[in-house]
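Predict the assembly for these two chains.
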Amino acid sequence: MHSSISISSKRPRRVLPGFGLSLGFTLSYLGLIVLIPLTLVFFKSTGLGFTGFWKVLSSDRVQSAFRLTFGLSALAGLLNGVFGFLVAWVLVRYQFPGRKLLDAAVDLPFAMPTAVAGIALTGLYAPNGWIGSKLAPLGIKVAFAPLGILLALTFIGLPFVVRTLQPVLEDLESAQEEAAASLGANRWETFRRVIFPPLLPALVTGSTLAFARAVGEYGSVVFIAGNKPGKTEIVPLLIMTKLEQFDYAGATALASLMLAISFVLLLFLNFLQRKTSLSRRSS
Amino acid sequence: MSPVSRSTQDPLWTRLLLIGAAVFFLVLFLLVPLFSIFAEAFKKGVALYFEALTEENARSAVLLTLTVAAITVPFNALFGVAAAWVIAKFEFRGKSLLLALIDLPFAVSPVVSGLCYILVFGANGVLGPWLQAHDIRIIFALPGMVLATIFVTFPFVARELIPLMQAQGSDQEYAALSLGASGWQTFRRVTLPNIKWALFYGIILCNARAMGEFGAVSVVSGHIRGETNTLPLHVEVLYNDYNMVAAFACASMLSLLGLVTLLLKTFIEWRTGLRHRHS
């Protein structure tokens, strides 16, 4: 990859045809579909003024929706970090029957429409569902409670961690592990000091991707959440509710804050991914 | 794969414990929900299942879903090829910004992407009065749903093609051009065959999301039964009506779409010998 870049950059620039056409099409399509509509969200919310903006955000309902969304998304990102690491490790390191099938199944949350995942999880974890009916006598309420939202958010985020970690785990050289073992480190020490550190950037990237996805998630959550204002109402649903009540100013204010957070997350992810690819190239 | 030497092999009990935990987690978390969709759909028998799928509102929902995808996918595929061509083959200022902006729709909440089109085309939107004066409906109609779907599936094809075309370089294209091929011939005979699997890969992912999108389409659809309900929205309507068999029957169709997508995706990964990297 490196060499091909340096070769092509030595050639005279823009010998290949189609620069103007493809750049023009790319920029106008990106501008019309994505950039102009998104800019409008910010532009419209400035019409509220600072006090109007603050009035929307300072309401109890909005604040508890933000706390719920970000708290549970962070928890889902963390859970995905743990389970995703376990799954990626097992899929890359061990051979067992059914491994390929499970590997393919990891992408199910990407492939299944969110509404489908939503009603499937709700059906299972509702008090009369297969799993919910077993948990109800123990006093554990999943569906129509924050735990259900956490479940849905973890479900849709799982592939991110597994798919980010897998290639890095596959690239890991066994020479360092062997060296550590031959120098007398036991397996746990080797894991903690030799194997884990180079995986950390990818793990953080995957968890952040899962977090970012969870923050904006709507389809898989609305069915299982119960949607009680102040208790189980997430921000995307609150935006939806405001739109249905024709409170466009309120919806736009919330949307612009969510957008700003998405931008920050995207910047952070770009930084992380650059770091991951650097450490992968040097190893 | 080289045989793992003893010193880097985990003890048997660790292996079994970890494999057991991962398999239990994946089965409980992914496969049981998938299975439950079909179990619920066939709960009251095959006849009711097929009745739910062939009923009039369901048929129009399927048709609308297919229409939206049929418009969305070619547009985003065309964009993906153009964006990958300009990014992989040329050097220009602002390229990394362009790359980041292409990924932007993935970072935006589907509800927000629907909302931004309401701000443009809605009754109180920037173009609202003009559209009303000319009797053009975009929001709560097909064009709005297509736009929202294009938005959420925007990066799929581009992000499959860009890394591949960057890795492939341009040497083959230079060779073709120096042998007298035209630009179009070069693209069609040299570039396209090189990227066809990645293009197909991006297209099936784009298609799956286009047919399954819920949040963004929900904002702009208006939920008119038999008119602006796609299949995922139809599932929601049925579910809220407590018509569980029908809701899960329609959901099972969408799950089949997901399964076929996974199957094709796995096939392409096997066919190209490339393990795909999502990140």
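DSSP finds 14 helices and no strands in chain A. The two ends of chain A are 15 Å apart (CA to CA).
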